[in-house]
Structures are given as C-alpha cells and as structure tokens.
Amino acid sequence: MSMTIRPAHRADASAVNELLDQLGHPQDGRAATANRIQTWADDPSSAAYVAEAGDDILGVIAVHVCPFFERDGSWGRIVALVVSGRARGRGVRSQLVAAAESFAAIRGCVRMEVTSGDRRQDAHEFYRRCGYIDQAGKASRFLRDLPTGGS
Questions:
Q1: How many other CB atoms are found less than 10 A from the CB of residue 1?
Q2: Is 1 helix (H, G, I), strand (E, B) or coil?
Q3: Which end of the chain is more exposed for a tag (fewer CB within 10 A), N or C?
Q4: Measured in Å, how far apart are the chain's first and last C-alpha atoms?
C-alpha cells in the first residue's frame, strides 16, 4: 500500500470526523473540525497529520509540545490517534506515531506521552511495542471541566 503522511488540512475535516467518530468522539460538523485543524496548523507547538492513500484518509494523529516546568526541556503529547478500521494492521499507526515523534524531537522534546482508554488493550500493546512505558498504578489522571467564557 502506497501511503503518505502529511499535515492535516481543512479539506480533511469530513474524513477526520469519521475517524474520530470511530474512536468514540462524535463531532459537531465539518466546519468546526476544519477550524480546529486550522488552529493546530497555526500553532507552532502543535501538529495534526493524516495518513493518505490515494484520495482515502486512513488515519489521523495530533501532537502537542509542552515545556517542562520542573526542569529544562519539553515533552510531546499524542492528543489523538485513530486509524480507520479498514486500514488497521497495515502500518498506518506506526507511521503516524513516527511523524508525531519526529515533530516533537525537532522541537527539542526529550519525552513523549500518550493516554489511552482502559478498554483499548490493543492500543496499549501497540504503545508498549513502540517503547512506551505503562504508568498505570504510578500516576493518576484527573479532569475537570471549566465554565465557558473563562469565568
């Protein structure tokens, strides 16, 4: 399979919506996703890439770079990664992760992070094969929604 990894463009929004929906994140529409893709493209600390074969988008990954506060350097975080069900097992995921890691490394990152839902055991095995170390039992993740409008 001939595949290209390239930056995501606004025109990819419909395909990205379908991919995110497969991951369990239904989207509000093409325009909103196109705007988010553009926001990521405009931010030098962020990138979104798609895997493309012909006119078919096979997967998407988003990565963000954040400086450490407690020490010098930065770390990269894979914010989203999804490969179409019809393209799984064909190396798409590995190439997308390589693109994200390259983006982070070029920006001075010394560590990568990714979170994955407990039910995604196949993804956990993939990350382990890529050299990621499972932090379950060593760290917890806490979330809190903030009121809109910065109040």
A1: 10
A2: coil
A3: C
A4: 50
**What's the token pair of residue 32?**
């909103």
The partner residues of 112 in beta bridges, in order of sequence, read 76
- Whole-model pTM: value is 0.88
- Asked if residue 86 lies in contact with residue 121, where contact means CB atoms within 8 angstroms, the answer is no
**Rounded CA gap, 94 and 74, in Å?**
22
CA distance 127 to 69: 25
- pLDDT, tens digit, for every residue of 105-141? 999 999 998 887 777 778 778 778 878 888 877 777 7
46-53 β-sheet, strand order: 4-7, 46-53, 56-67, 74-83, 109-114
